[in-house]
Amino acid sequence: MITAAWIALFAPAAAVVAIALAGTAISRSVAGYLAAGSALVSFVSSVVVFVVLLGEDPEERTHSSTLWTWLSAGDLKIGAEIQVDPLSVFMMLIVSGVGFLILAYAVGYMAGDVEERRYHAYKALFLFSMLLLVEAGNLVLLLAGWGMVGLSSYLLINFWHHRATAVAAGKKAFIMNAFGDATFALAIFLLIQRTGSVEFDTVFSSDVVEHGSTAAVLIALGLLGGAVAKSAQVPLHTWLPDAMEGPTPVSALIHAATMVTAGVYLVARTNVLFELAPAIQDLAGILGGVTILLAGLIALVQTDIKRVIAYSTMSQIGYMFVAVGLGAYGSGMFHLMTHAFFKALLFMAAGIVIHALSDEQDIRRMGGLGRALPFTYRVFVIGALALAAIPPFAGFFSKDSILGAAANAGTLGWILWTAGAIGAFLTGLYTFRLLFIVFWGDLTPFAREHLHRKRFDGGLAMAWPVAILAVLSIFGGWLQVPWGWDLVNQWLEPVAESAEEATGVTFTFSVIASLVLAVAGIWLAWRWYGRPSEVPARTRKRWPWAARTLEHKFYFDEAYDLAFYEPASRNAAFLTRYVEQPLFLSSLGELGSSVRSASRRLSALQTGYVREYALALAAGLAVLAIVFILVT
Amino acid sequence: MFTSILILLPIAGAFFVWIVPWPTPRAAGGAALLVALAELVLWVNRALNFDYASSGLQDDASHSWFSDLGVSYSVGLYDFSLWLVGLTVVVFTAAVAYGFWSGRERMGVYLGLLLFLEGATVGVFAAQDLLLFYVFWEAMMIPLYILIGVWGGAGRMGATIKFVVYTLAGSLLMLVSVIALGLSAGTFDMQKIGESGSTWIFLGFAAAFAVKAPLWPFHGWLPDAYRESPAEVSAILSGVISKAATYGFLRIGLVFFPGVVADWRTVVLVLATIGLVYGSLLAFRAPDIRGVIAYSSLAQMNLIIIGLFAVNDSGLSGAVLQMVTHGLISAALFLIAGSVERRAATGDLVRLGGMARGRPVLATTLITTGVIALAVPGSSAFAGEFLILNGIFTRGWGWAVAGAAAIVLAAMYMLRLISAVLHRDPGPAVTEAALDLRPAEISVIVPLVTLLLALSFWPAAITDHSFGGRPSDTVGSQFEASP
Predict the structure, then answer these.
(1) What ipTM was assigned to the predicted interfaces of this complex?
(2) What is the pLDDT of residue A207?
(3) Residue B394 distance to chain A (closest CA, Å)
């Protein structure tokens, strides 16, 4: 069984090596099939692992295996070690399953691109890194996967590297994540200092540090820094919208379904350490709540189809952070799963639209596509309903599971519940704004001119993975049904015991209130965008500062430029000009030229040096040797 | 016996290349390459049979030289010095091959000098007698003066003079310390000298090592030397020669002067931390490829010094691993830089760009080496830096925080370098005539990158096989074990 887990991990790595070594010996689509095939192998192996674990006693479902010592220093041994338990299998299934569908879709999507093979290799590299992240059996290996998903994300964001914006976006994503990696590493140092180990079973024990002590707070804070950067939560969120410069399947896989949710996985994985620092766990929830609102508001004014979905991703991960921040790990992971289904679906549907319109992403040029692209329209509606949490679609069950937990978590819980409920309204509004603008109304002149469609709008190769995700977006939420069953919570219980959800009247209120708000959001979207309306323009005119603030995304980018990039750049320039040049380079340069003029009379260069050298040697020796021996 | 062969083979090879009247420069170059390859094979064969369980000296040989002074020809290898010798032979083989392929003028003389330098460098890592150590140290410097002064770029004169003045000042202070330490201990045998409490003698050694590494602020010679040397000489300078200095800190500084090291730890750590951040910031602003690599090398060497001065299991293991990793990274980067400059006739970043399209091998090797250099988690450089910062963390969390900040800066300058060379539209200096790496270049650079990937897969190959697995015990029982 553990062999299957190793196969799941290394299959994509093998695909990377194969594609890299084969070069032009294999055709472009074969490279794509290799990558997708490796993902399928991973998925099948993950299913095998899952089935075996299912047959075991819940408390016996943790297995680990070490192949070799990866790194060592004296007594500190860090193994190349994987751990299989309910939490990692849960992630493995999502990553390899959704990953397989997206990689298969990408074969169709990327057909005809100039550097397709490189693309498929990067995609497989990402899959390997992500599986390493979720299967890692110790913190350092987890950090290794953590960093490598960041690397593959960088490589894929600037895949179209002739675009300056793509290059800048890739760098921004990598550097913000490097910041998170650094705080993550510092947390590990502190844990090593306390326990001398990085093993999960050693560091995840409640007596590692005193409850609420400074060390506990710092450890949790370091981990949270990594999680927030990776999951694009406020205040380290600004890289994600820019990351939409990458090809759309990349956005679907990395920047929606899997990598960006790794922060949620990290908090769930290290839940013992977060429980030791309640203040920081609360902070995780609060950052999530802030992100829900902030991203939901910004999404209202975005005009790029992918950026709208990207802000929605940030906002939805905000819900997951609220969940894990309140200790409702099961609900958070459940929403992670359903979100992976419907968000990948939305991105892939958007990808078909973008393809059909000759790579246009601006929604102001779209319109009336519902009739032109019927298949895409239908799956997009399914995705939108799931995202807006309308029953019986997947998002309804997971979002209400989170809100139900928030309603049972005291004052902070109710504050976060309010943020989540407002978020439900915003989600309905921005999702259906997008849907109505793109698919309703009459075909725009631009669309009429550029539209070209194939069978199933974008060809069968792209359609079938989308169709499977549509089915999952409808039924995927039925794993955990209110007043029915909670399979996800039960499954994860041995690793991360979830906080109790509200029951009875409170829960009923929570469900109905959030549903009413979501429907209200959709209704408002219909009023404003579902038919010709002056209201959006008028609103914008009445509150220009509000529109400006939203369009500038609350000025985070500007503030960071001012606070970090500019000072780093200016300090470096200052050091180069006023320290390095005068103190270290010029003065000796002048010395050099004076020595040079003195030595010009010497015929050959080499003898000049040797003579000089011998002279200095003798003189220096005579003086210094005496002094030094006397002094010592 | 084996150690002596390892030292003498390249030196003898140098004379062989110099003296024989080769019909063509290519023939002389080919002979030099064969010698370098033979040296590499010798080392690999030995590394496979080395006894890593023992932390003691192996393959040692000793012959009395000046018995009344206690001077002897005494050489041998510890497990960690074996790795540094390995780095030396690998990088030199690559450098000789690269020089051979580039067709430098007076090829026989040039490659002979490289071989001589190789022998001297192996000697530094193997010497077990202080005076012998000094002799090899100087023997290492003299070919470098000539290599930079004669085969360097347009500004080679100024670069050479600066290099000479700095290293000479350092070496002389070290010579004084060698004599003083030897006379006061009554022997120059490094196995027998024992501890010394003398601050002055320590500082004499430290001066030479600080210049050569270089420790901030003794780096004034570095940017010019790294920019003006031929690419393969820069690769050797930053990849291997700088490691002789950190080796010196380890083998002489930490072992003979534990008390003084403890007293001076804060001073060294402050300087090294400044150097780490300073080098990273300057690398971020450097206008040319070699400038970025040079200043990043400054930063990395200071990081290695931080690891050494942590003097615990984690810091020492990390420092040795990072010495090897950084040596390979630096060598690969400088050789790639040389290949880029050869195609574009410039290293100015503003004139480069867009080289990735149509040049997959160049792009893949530069990106792979670059992301390892910026220590992406999972890479061997990450493993080294992780251990170094973990080691220094136990001495004070502030050092580790500064180090972690520098790692973010490393991402900034390395990605800047990668995209300035490879991405966006082709720069004015990049034409269609600039082709992808040729097979000859691939045969030199790709093995270096492959080694880095292999080390990333298994960094414990080095950490598990250094200091007999017990770094702080081995370096000196006087050091407390890592907490």
Answers:
(1) 0.92
(2) 80
(3) 7
Q: Check B149 against A609: CB less than 8 A apart.
A: yes
pLDDT at A621: 54
The chain B residue lying nearest A178, using CA atoms, is B408
Name which of B33, B37, B38 is nearest B111 in CA terms.
Answer: B33
Contact B93, B26 (CB under 8 A): no
pLDDT given for residue B66 in this prediction: 76
- Looking at every residue in chain A, the average pLDDT score rounds to 87
pLDDT digits (tens, 9 = 90+) for B449-469: 999 999 999 999 999 888 877
B136-145 per-position pLDDT tens digit: 999 998 899 9
Tokens standing for A204? 């995840």
Instruction: Tell me which chain B residue has its CA closest to the CA of residue A586.
Output: B220
What distance in Å separates the CA atoms of residue A352 and residue A463, rounded to the nearest whole number?
A: 9
- The CA–CA distances, whole Å, from A266 to A289, A513, B296 equal 18, 31, 32
Interface test with A, best of B176, B216, B278, B361 (most A CBs within 10 A): B176
Out of A145, A185, A583, name the one closest to residue B386 (CB): A185
* CB < 8 Å to A583, chain B: 217, 220
Return the pLDDT at B8. Answer: 92
Q: What pLDDT, on a 0 to 100 scale, did the predictor assign at position A612?
A: 56
HSE-CB of A24 using CA atoms within 13 angstroms: 5
With CA atoms as reference, the chain A residue closest to B280 would be A572
In a domain, B196, yes or no: no
Query: Residue B2: inside a domain, yes or no?
Result: no
User: Judged by CB atoms within 8 Å, which residues 103-162 of B form the interface with A?
Assistant: 145-146, 149-150, 157-158, 161-162
pLDDT given for residue A607 in this prediction? 45
* Residue B411 to residue A178, Cβ atoms within 8 A: yes
Chain B hits for A74, CB-CB cut-off 8 Å, are 312-314, 317, 469-472, 481-482
Interface contact flag, A118 B360, Cβ < 8 Å: yes
Which position has the token pair 């407002």? A422
Mutate: best of A10, A21, A71, partner B, most B CBs <10 A? A71
B362: Cβ contacts below 8 Å, ≥ 6 apart: B336, B339, B340, B355, B356, B422, B436, B437
Give the CA radius of gyration of chain A: 28
pLDDT along chain B (483 residues), means of 10: 90 91 89 94 91 82 78 87 95 94 87 94 93 92 89 85 87 91 86 86 93 89 89 94 94 90 92 93 91 94 94 92 96 95 89 88 94 93 95 91 90 93 88 87 94 95 86 61 31
- At A632 the pLDDT is 44
Helix (H, G, I), strand (E, B) or coil at A511: helix
Number of domains in chain B: 1
B397 touches chain A (CB under 8 A): yes
Nearest by CB to B419, from A145, A167, A632: name it: A167
Retrieve residue A254's tokens.
């990395």
What does the alpha-carbon distance between residue A132 and residue B378 come to, in Å, rounded to a whole number?
A: 10
Helical pair A262-269 and A86-109, crossing angle rounded to 10 deg? 170
Contact B217 A583 (CB under 8 A): yes
**Domain span including residue B447:** 257-477
DSSP string spanning A180-206?
A: HHHHHHHHHHHHHHHHS--BHHHHSST
Query: Is A596 within 8 Å of B221 when comparing Cβ atoms?
Result: no
Q: Which of B312, B411, B425 sits opposite A174 (nearest CB)?
A: B411
B202, A628 contact by CB (below 8 A): no
pTM (predicted TM-score) = 0.91
> Does residue B380 form part of some domain?
yes
Per the domain annotation, does B453 fall within a domain?
yes
Interface of A with B in 613-632 (CB under 8 A): 613, 616-617, 620-621, 624-625, 628-629, 631-632
Q: What is the mean pLDDT of residues A118-144?
A: 94
